[in-house]
Structure formats: structure tokens, C-alpha cells
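lol ok so funny story. i was supposed to be doing the assay writeup but got distracted and ended up predicting the structure for this chain instead. priorities right. anyway since i did it might as well share w the group, maybe its usefull for someone
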Amino acid sequence: MTTPRIAVGPQSAPWAEEAVRRGGGEIVSVDDGPDGLVWIEFRAAQNLKKYLDAHPGIGWVQLPLAGVEDLFAAGVIDHGRTWTSAKGAYAEPVAEHALTLALAGLRVLPTRARARTWGTPAGISLFDRPVTIIGAGGITVALLALLKPFRTEVTVVRQRPHPLDGAWRTLGIDHLHEALTGALVVVLAPALTPRTHQMMARAEFDVMERDAWLVNVGRGGLVDTAALVDALRAKSIGGAALDVTDPEPLPKGHPLWSMKNCLITPHTSDTQEMIWPLLAARITENVRRLGANEEFIGLVDVQQGY
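and the output, tada:
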């Protein structure tokens, strides 16, 4: 067991430094040749690139993000270092939000929340109805547990169709249309990669059920927004509940804002108040694993892009 020497950047953060110490690490300056870097800035890929270019000896980087597609696009992540992300760390609050959005859509809350008259009773129950989840990471695992009381038959779509505990069936991505057919709720939670970019487009909306709701808690780029607008206008699907959009933020005046069968939350499935303690726990565990020479949690697959 060794004592990992860890820098925190781009600025000091007492909560992150304490997380390092809880994992058995020692806080050092980035100029003192640390074994690893805990990076706590969320939306500045070029800052991280400059930081690492100036300190090429850093061998391990812990990122605060679950989705790292922007870092790949900016050329930050490479084969020269070991990278760990926060994938899976924020799964529970995101899964909770996905279920909230699904129930809100099925119970017509977008319309009722804006109503100023009694209106016509409407709504669909989730109990005993089929659900499809695209992606098989931590969000899906947490969501499967939340769905269990609803007695749903859940189909999980993933890159390779290996069985997943709690899923009724698991299909490969090549069988996406089969998985969409018959589902009352379709939840998007995969990593955004070239293969999953706009994976939900006109052909996919065409095979969804007319009362089905699309729930996106992954990335906005998973959906062809223009095709979604057309599907909602034509009422070829029941509706969409989106925590992420493309573009993001969704511009004022965009058609999605005014659609009664669309519910939008501003990327709030995992607020900073929710994620700080979860990220701190991930930092602590990975520092401990570094000192014990054990495999990290949340390893970034540089080949796969997530």
C-alpha cells in the first residue's frame, strides 16, 4: 500500500482535498510531480488540455463528468494517461429524475400544470406496461430498481446483448426498432458516441407507439431534434420529456417550448448540490484504489469514447 500524491485543479477545493485524504492520499502541488490529478472544473476542456500540456508527468486524471464526449472532441483524452470519469456516480438522482419525467408525461402533467380550467380527465398508468431503456450503465441499473414495484417488463438496449440483472430482455443496438415497438416509455441513457448520435430520428419515432413517451436523461445529441418536433406535431408519439436537448440550452422561442406534449427540465437531473457528495465518494475510492494498486472505478475506454 502506497500513499498516492494527488493534486487538485484547476484551483483548490477543500471538499475534494478532504476526499483525497479520506482515500489515503496526500495533497501536493501540481508542480511537485503528483501521481494523479483530481480535476473539478466541469465545462472548460481547453483549460484541462493546457493544464496537462504544462504537466506531462501526470499519469492519472479523475474527471468530474459522467459524459466525456466534449473532452474527446477537444482532443484532451488520449492514450498517454489513465482517465477515470464520474460515470455511474450520479446514477441514482438521474434515474429518479427519469422516472419522474416518465410519470409526469403519462399523467399529462405538462398540460395540467399549465391549465386554468378543469379540463378533461386523462392519464396512463405505468403499472404492468413495457418500458425500454437504451444504455446499460449505472443510470439503467438504478432505474431498473426503481421500476421494479411497477411490475414493468423492461427491455434494455446495449452495444452487446449481454443479460442485465432486473431486465426482462437485453437486445443489441442493431435491434433498436424491435425494442421500441410496443414500449410505453423509452428512456435514453447511453453515452453519446458517433454510433449513438441522433440514434432517435424519424425512422425510430415511426416505430414507437402512438401513446409512448420518450424520456431523455442522457445527452441532447442522442435525438434528432427536428424529427422529434415533427413527431410531436403529428402526435405520432405520446410525448417527450427532456432533461437534455440539442441545442442546449434550448433557445427561447424554440417550438418544443410551446408543445403541450413536451416537458422540458433544464439539465437538472443531477444538480451540483446533489453530485458533490457523490463525486467526493468516487474520488475517495479511486485514490484508495490507486494506493492499493487496484483497478479504478469509472475507467474511460479511450477506444470506445466513453
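The mean pLDDT is 95. The radius of gyration is 21 Å.
back to the writeup now i swear
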